[in-house]
Amino acid sequence: MARPAPFPLVDGDRVLVVRLGALGDVLRTLPAVRLLRQTFPAARIAWIAEDLSRPVLEGHPAVDDLIRFPLRELREAPGRLVSILRALRDDLRARRFDVALDFQGSLKSGLVAWISGARRRVGFAPGHAREWSHVLSTHWVRPSGPRINRVEKALAIAEGVGARGAEVGVGLMERGDDAAEAERILAGLAPAGRRVVILSPGTSELQRRKRWPAARYGAVAAALARSGAAVPVVFWGPGEEDLAAAAVAASGGSAVLAPRTTIRVLAAVLRRAVLFIGGDTGPMHLAWAVGCPVVALFGPTDPRLNAPIGPAHVVLRAGRSMDRLDADDVVRAALAILRRRDDNLHAPPTAARPAPVFPRHPLPLPDEPRT
Question: In the prediction, which pLDDT does 285 show?
Fold first, then answer.
């Protein structure tokens, strides 16, 4: 069953990136795809993604083509499964991909890579892939360990096909209309240019185990407001408005409820915020991606795999139950980050914080021996 290691891409290759799934999954794959673009500027890179994560990929300079994965149709019309997948197959094969890179390592992603018709399909080796997806790959990459951060795991695929670089970043773009909307929202929520801390208590119903109680978000907001360090603002996504309202109520009026926003506008708001506090969710990864410092609250999920990378962030872990995480610990972590910026306490929010880069040890070129 062994598969050979992949060989490097050639500039000009037509490349299919397969990374379906949630917003955080896509954001943590972007550094690897950006490294591919830097190494192979003439490659034609297409990404197949689901609707919820497509906004962060639209207009990204590392992605030439964005292909929609028809998840909604598959869920709503299971009787049309064959015809929907046949149409997807025909679309993918018409693009004549040279290589498909399966950054996900699941049966679904492996099947997408397989039906694309790409003769070279690079995926994770056994022990690093799920659901026997490795049997659908023609070449295997073996990451450095079984429990490494998802950013590093994705980078293993990119490096496996020849991508090289001493540092990597996410490189999210910001449109002018999103920036203007973010400025308008912040001017209404925190007048006079006061600093803003974003609190995000929500999760999807499937991820309820990642939720920290709304009352404790309220307690943190009240403490931050009393400190005068920043205005606490509670953001929310679809289906989370009641949870956000409960956090605001628990703050005793110290927190402000944000209006409904899109993912792209939320990214623009986070660029201008001084801190994000929340669990292991898409908004937390989005904050990391645009360079906003994070206090990341972890319970049942493993921060070794999912925590934001970089020295700007603080990770607090409660164990199996989020209820075990104390509000005082979160307040201390938040104030420690905010004190780094005390010289700018009354300055207006940063206009355009660059996307983060985190240093990596330079990698040997293909003709140099590894030590």
Answer: 95
